[in-house]
Amino acid sequence: MDLRELSWFDGNIFADPSSRLLYSSDQAQPPAFARKFLTAEPILIAQPNTIEACSQLLAHLDKERVPVIPRGAGSFALGGAVPARSGVILDISPRRRVLRLEKEVMTVEVEGGCRWSDLSEYLEPHGLDVFTCPTSAFSTVAGWVATGGAGIGTLKYGYLRGLVEELEVVLPGGPVRRLTAGDPELDLMFGSEGELGVIWSMRLRVRTRQRVMHPVLVPCDDLDATAALVSEACRFSPYAITLYNQARMRIANREHTMLPERPSILVVYEQAEEAWGFQQHLASRGIPTAPRGVASFLWNERFFPIRMKKYAPGMLAADVVVPRHRLAGFLAAAEAAGRSHGVEVFCEASFDTPESAVTIPSFFSDPRDHLGYALHGYLALTMARRAISLGGRPYGHGLWYSLFRDRGEDAQRRRALKRRLDPHGMFNPSKSLAPSIKLSGWNALTRAALGLSSVLLRLNGPLSRSRPVRRDPATSALRKAIEACSSCGSCLSKCPAYIETADERTTARGKLKMAAAILSDRNRYSSAEEKVPFLCMHCKFCTEVCQSDIPLEDVYTELESVLAARVEYPEAEVAAFVSSIESKGLMRALGLAAPALATGAQPPLPRRPAQNNAKANG
């Protein structure tokens, strides 16, 4: 696409190779052959400043028959925001304002790129909070609408759909609509995964903030006993229930050694009386509970569900909703399948209703071992298929689960709406609502292979066991960080450089993806692109929120040394960048400047890499 055609566009446009690389993937790391066959690199990334600019852009792209792929924080792991056809990524992530709080009716209106963590923080001084939120607290509100809306608090307050009073959406071709409870299209936007339009803003209900939560952790002898406790816990109106298998508790103990290494259930109540009632019920049956501090520790880890990724170069998982009465059997089958492949399966199941749980069995793998990783990818798909055979369903579809095509009534209505709103199939094309011929063929072959899973798993197991997952012990901090990064996007939430520039290459996730490409292909990027990572305030916020606990300050030192040996340090650009952030008071507004100065430290300003270091590491 000729960028001169978009000279009228009110917003940011990124069309350089490094940005296109970043936006060609999300949190998932699928096997290389699947990625090469099913995904494409975008033409460019567009970030509209206003809803009018978004509407005008969509009208232009529809006229030119250019595919559009909406994107939030890129934290969905099923490929919903990954281009299946080359087109324009429409990134709403920078549109993150809280627009209006109406305390008298207990609602708040926010832009689609607002993070759940930012919204909760905004509401706190008003004594308010959201009813529910995803475990990825740094994801966008629009992204959670698009991917279904089940998370923390859903057990008590229901899916997000029941809490949203209005959506403002930009439909394919550019029409702007405000959808309310009386509009039949409103329900269909939830779980639509960007195939029906761009969710620009929304109005949702909020509640009085619960200052103290009351977690109860119950270790059990086996998975059956753990699952059986759910119905009993539900008698006391829990806010959230999460079940963990023994391996999941053990991996959480690797650094803290305080959790019981047994299958366990964490039940969280809003009221002390509710928690007390459940504990008394357990005591009457002679069932002990873990100390309150241990339960609180596990509850406080709820926003870091993939922290264990740091222990291996890669991780694969299934993401399914399983009926409660089949949950123990499913988890046991997943563990057995993992053992046959020489991997330990970590299971976490969060109940969305008293009768079902969003369940994620995960295991370590190594994407550098292409054959072993492909075998493990097949194993993850067989776990999802097993859940479906037990009456479950995939939590979402995206690209990687499009083979499990939903044929329910809501899906049929979405497909009909898709045909009406997007007759040319340009909106997030070639996904579950309107798969391409290539994707349909791929899915047919995959389904055929899954039909032979009993045979193939027996063949794959010995081969997989012969390829154990290892992390190279001797490697640089930068290479370790590239492996450990989970691509969760937590680092984007309050990064002052990202908020200032809207350029993901200034974030930890962006820098590490760029570094991986630079270390493997030194001539891929221009000098202008390789200067972008120097735009950093070194405020250390990204280190604080990093799920993988990466020491990012040390990593940046090494990366900047590598870059300084390749390009001239952009002194003027860095000075202008710092001046702009200081003039706006951005660091203080984010709560990042005051703590550093209060301890007597120097202000967290960018540093120029030492030239001798740069030459030594070049």
Question: In words, what does this structure look like?
Answer:
With 618 residues, the protein is α+β, with helices and mostly antiparallel strands. It has four domains: 3-91, Uridine Diphospho-n-acetylenolpyruvylglucosamine Reductase, domain 2 (2-Layer Sandwich), CATH 3.30.43; 98-208, Uridine Diphospho-n-acetylenolpyruvylglucosamine Reductase, domain 3 (2-Layer Sandwich); 214-394, FAD-linked oxidases, C-terminal domain (Vanillyl-alcohol Oxidase, Chain A, domain 3, 3-Layer(aba) Sandwich), CATH 3.40.462.10; 477-617, no CATH class. Helix 13 (370-389) packs antiparallel against helix 16 and helix 17 packs across helix 19. It is globular and about 70 Å long.
The chain-level structural class is alpha+beta
The 3D shape can be described as globular
Q: What CATH architecture label of the largest domain applies?
A: 3-Layer(aba) Sandwich
The quaternary state of the protein chains shown equals: single chain
CATH superfamily of the largest domain, please? FAD-linked oxidases, C-terminal domain
Look up the CATH topology of the largest domain.
Vanillyl-alcohol Oxidase, Chain A, domain 3
Poorly predicted runs of 5 or more residues: 593-605, 612-618
